[in-house]
């Protein structure tokens, strides 16, 4: 491929992303007419219409969408390889975008980044809280943090925390009304508080019996997409909750919550930082990964 042909493809990718010749021209440092001419030249060379244009909007055609989807990972890798050269010239710099749950952000990301960032003032980390199974490529995250069993097999996964001890807990008022379950099967008689992970998906409570893993789908009056309102609802006696032990340890110690099914409750796999394969990670991203990497004592 000739150099000018590659430049035309890169310009088209920007127009397809921005859906505007004006915004694309600003990003490329070219005039709007020049960008329009580049796209026309590319369409003539390919014999395909890549963009549908009206007086108010620009949108990729079906063939344009397919070309843009093919170009995006190649251009992203090129950007990353160019950024990786900065470690030979400048201090690591840039923004690293992560998606994580609140518990992971509080217990793993926060402490690790507090140690890293003061030494690297040109690095910024943006953490977006989300319990859903975010598509990090589509949503333009550098990486995501989820428990190990939720990570897709085609992702690079770096362990960043130990297994997560869990506890099934309820308020004394709940047990006064409903009694105490002696086995996981008895949860059907108890209102439980659900954690929503994404559209139509709820966290299943994990138990172990005779070496076998049992995942239970509980029912109850309330569901949240965060563990912290679940804890508050449990304290109010509205149902049983399955929460990380480190988030309820003080409540248990002070008698506000009581633990049940302890001998059945299984830990969850520790958090993983997951991301697509990167041949040339930016220095900032590489530093963040190394800072988060779990080192078992």
Structural notes for this entry:
With 297 residues, the protein is an alpha+beta fold. The protein has nine helices and 15 strands. The chain has helices spanning 3-18, 21-28, 32-46, 62-84, 102-116, 172-178, 227-235, 245-253, 283-292, and strands spanning 51-53, 58-60, 94-100, 123-129, 143-147, 156-159, 166-170, 193-198, 201-202, 205-209, 212-216, 222-224, 241-244, 258-260, 271-275. The chain has a five-stranded mixed β-sheet with strand order 4-3-5-15-6, with helices on one face. Strand 3 (94-100), helix 5 and strand 4 form a beta-alpha-beta unit. The longest helix has 23 residues, at 62-84. The termini are far apart. The mean pLDDT is 87.
The DSSP helix count reads 9
Question: Ranges with pLDDT <50 over ≥5 residues?
Answer: none
- What percent strand? 15-25%
Radius of gyration: 25 Å
Question: What structural class is derived from the secondary structure elements?
Answer: alpha+beta
Helical percentage: 25-40%
Q: Indicate the mean pLDDT.
A: 87
State the total count of DSSP E strands. Answer: 15
Rounded to the nearest angstrom, the distance between the terminal CA atoms is 52 Å
Q: Report strand order across the widest sheet.
A: 4-3-5-15-6
Q: What is the H/E order? A: HHHEEHEHEEEEHEEEEEHEHEEH
**Global morphology:** elongated
The largest pleated sheet is described as: 5 strands, mixed
């Amino acid at each position: 491929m000739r150099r000018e042909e590659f430049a035309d493809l890169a310009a088209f990718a920007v127009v397809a992303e921005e859906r505007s010749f004006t915004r694309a021209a600003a990003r490329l440092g070219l005039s709007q007419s020049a960008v329009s001419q580049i796209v026309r030249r590319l369409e003539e060379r390919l014999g395909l219409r890549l963009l549908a244009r009206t007086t108010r909007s620009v949108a990729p055609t079906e063939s344009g969408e397919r070309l843009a989807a093919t170009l995006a990972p190649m251009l992203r890798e090129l950007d990353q390889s160019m950024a990786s050269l900065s470690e030979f010239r400048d201090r690591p710099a840039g923004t690293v975008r992560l998606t994580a749950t609140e518990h992971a952000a509080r217990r793993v990301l926060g402490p690790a980044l507090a140690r890293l960032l003061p030494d690297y003032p040109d690095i910024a980390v943006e953490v977006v809280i989300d319990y859903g199974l975010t598509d990090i490529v589509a949503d333009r995250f550098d990486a995501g943090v989820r428990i190990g069993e939720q990570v897709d097999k085609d992702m690079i996964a770096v362990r960043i925390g130990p297994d997560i001890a869990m506890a099934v807990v309820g308020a004394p008022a709940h047990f006064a009304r409903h009694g105490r379950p002696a086995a996981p099967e008895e949860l059907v008689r108890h209102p439980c508080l659900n954690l929503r992970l994404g559209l139509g998906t709820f966290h299943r409570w994990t138990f172990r019996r005779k070496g076998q893993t049992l995942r239970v789908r509980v029912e109850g009056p309330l569901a949240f997409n965060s563990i912290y309102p679940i804890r508050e609802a449990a304290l109010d006696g509205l149902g049983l909750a399955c929460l990380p032990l480190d988030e309820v340890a003080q409540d248990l110690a002070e008698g506000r919550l009581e633990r049940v099914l302890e001998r059945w409750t299984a830990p969850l796999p520790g958090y993983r930082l997951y991301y697509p394969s990167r041949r040339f990670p930016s220095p900032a991203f590489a530093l963040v990964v190394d800072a988060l990497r779990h080192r078992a004592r």
